[in-house]
């Protein structure tokens, strides 16, 4: 990811579903950002005690996938999950207003870089729905795509701006729904490439199922635990930092 931190401001904010707040941010420093970055991630640096710390080593920040880039201004559209998890990002997104200052670092690369495979399996939830959006738009039309997105309510289903089929799993039990969907996959002779970005415990379960039941090589699976049940975002960040130090 680029270490450049750009000062930005909120251009608009709107609650689009019960659990998603869509915020558009802009900056004079966004001129180099184009639609090729849709689906990439940026680090959002949030205000703390009314001030934004623009130092990547000490800032309060989280990663978000770019949903849209305005071709004229380079402004970025980001979707924030609200009313589900606790933490500084959620708290900020719920009260952010036009003109508020923040920092944007990146963009960083997409997880997937192989766009010439015959079969892809994509698994996500509201925290990663725009990563799924980016892939279903950009993967080859001749490729088979099995895409599953968990949402807590039907009102949380959003337009992914694609003609490809996406399976929306509307339920309170994401583990049961996603694991059941995986068990019914039809795998061709060539193992698929898998992208998943979900709750950390569910990522482990899904990865075990894919490797043990379908013999999908671990090298074909690109996964991220975006959040963890029972732990707020700040606590989960500290857990991941601790695990990285122990690895």
UniProtKB/TrEMBL annotation:
CDD domains (UniProt xref): siderophore_interacting
Source domain of life: Bacteria
Domain named FAD-binding FR-type is located at: 3-114
InterPro entries listed in its UniProt record: FAD-bd_FR_type, FNR_nucleotide-bd, Riboflavin_synthase-like_b-brl, SIP_FAD-bd, SIP_fam, SIP_rossman_dom
SUPFAM superfamilies noted in UniProt: Riboflavin synthase domain-like (SSF63380)
**PROSITE patterns, per the entry:** FAD_FR
Query: Which Pfam family, giving just one, matches this sequence?
Result: FAD_binding_9
Q: Which family does it belong to?
A: Belongs to the SIP oxidoreductase family.
**Name of the molecule in the record:** Siderophore-interacting protein
């Amino acid at each position: 990811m680029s270490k450049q931190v750009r000062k930005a401001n909120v251009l608009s904010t709107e609650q689009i579903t019960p659990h998603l707040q869509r915020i558009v941010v802009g900056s004079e420093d966004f001129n180099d950002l184009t639609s090729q970055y849709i689906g990439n991630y940026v680090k959002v640096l949030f205000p703390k005690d009314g001030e934004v710390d623009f130092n990547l080593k000490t800032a309060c920040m989280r990663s978000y996938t770019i949903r849209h880039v305005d071709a004229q201004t380079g402004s970025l559209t980001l979707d924030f999950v609200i009313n589900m998890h606790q933490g500084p990002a959620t708290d900020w997104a719920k009260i952010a207003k036009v003109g508020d200052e923040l920092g944007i670092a990146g963009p960083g690369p997409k997880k997937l870089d192989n766009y010439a495979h015959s079969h892809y399996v994509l698994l996500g939830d509201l925290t990663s729905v725009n990563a799924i959006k980016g892939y279903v738009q950009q993967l080859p039309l001749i490729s088979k795509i099995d895409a599953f997105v968990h949402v807590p309510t039907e009102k949380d289903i959003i337009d992914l701006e694609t003609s490809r089929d996406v399976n929306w799993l509307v339920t309170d039990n994401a583990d049961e729904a996603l694991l059941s969907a995986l068990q019914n996959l039809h795998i061709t002779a060539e193992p698929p490439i898998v992208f998943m970005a979900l709750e950390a415990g569910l990522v482990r379960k899904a990865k075990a199922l894919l490797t043990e039941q379908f013999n999908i090589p671990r090298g074909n699976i690109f996964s991220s635990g975006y959040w963890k049940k029972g732990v707020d975002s700040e606590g989960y960040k500290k857990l991941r930092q601790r695990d990285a130090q122990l690895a």
